[in-house]
Amino acid sequence: MPTTLEVPARQGRAGLVRRGQALRVINTLGHQVVDFWGFGADDTTLYLSMSHTRVRAGHVNPRAGDTLLDSRREPMILFESDDSPGVHDSLLAACDPNRYRQFGIASFHDSCANNMERALAALDRKSAICPQPLNLWMNIPFTAEGQWQFREPVSKPGAAVVMRALVDCVMVMSACPQDQSSVPVNAGKPVAVHYQLLD
User: Fold this and answer.
1) Residue 145: what pLDDT?
2) Which domain does 56 fall in, by range?
């Protein structure tokens, strides 16, 4: 049995995933969004690119079976499986300190951008930018007029996705700390999620 590790509520974690290995990300309680990134194992200027992936996939959000591309349009990660309803987001930027200042929060507030930086630093790595993440389980439906809406996740407790590395890479996860009532993407209650490294 693979070891199950925790991404604590409002925090981030990263792991080196070798080519052929996979990361299983588990939405333990079902209502938590996870911002997900991939970076080159030895070159963080190479990163998982949602914009390039959308062009290749032909649809807005990745689905099980899709190949996710890096910033040079090369295959990086296989979105191998998904036992949730498949509602994710690939358009919205990670929350960051500026986002919370715009909410009127003057003091420090955890953010996915900060979580990404700290998670990479724990592996002695850093990135000059915070790329667009794949927002796992983030429910952002569109109206007929093209306006998006913030909704609670529709996944169930224990829902999981499997991301298989097609090259050596660092996979980063942030248990999104968004807790503002106007943006109920975590049902207003950020919680921990879990993950496993699979062969």
Assistant:
1) 86
2) 4-198
Cα separation, 171 vs 166, whole angstroms = 12
Q: Residue 57: which H helix or E strand, with range?
A: helix 50-57
Enter the DSSP assignment of 185. Answer: T
Task: Find the Cα–Cα–Cα–Cα dihedral 65, 152, 58, 129, rounded to 10°.
Answer: -90
What tens digit of pLDDT does each residue of 133-160 get? 999 999 999 888 888 899 999 999 999 9
- The residues of the chain scoring below 50 in pLDDT are none
| Number of domains forming the structure of the chain | 1
- pLDDT score at 1: 79
From residue 19, alpha-carbon distances to 32, 34, 55, 114 in Å are 28, 22, 24, 27
Sign (positive or negative) of CA dihedral 100, 106, 109, 114: positive
Contact in structure between 56 and 69 (CB atoms under 8 Å): yes
For residue 52, the 8-state DSSP code is H
Report how far apart the first and last C-alpha atoms of the chain are (Å, whole number): 11
CA distance 163 to 26: 11
Nearest Cα residue to 78 out of 192, 169, 146: 169
Distance CA 78, CA 73 (A): 14
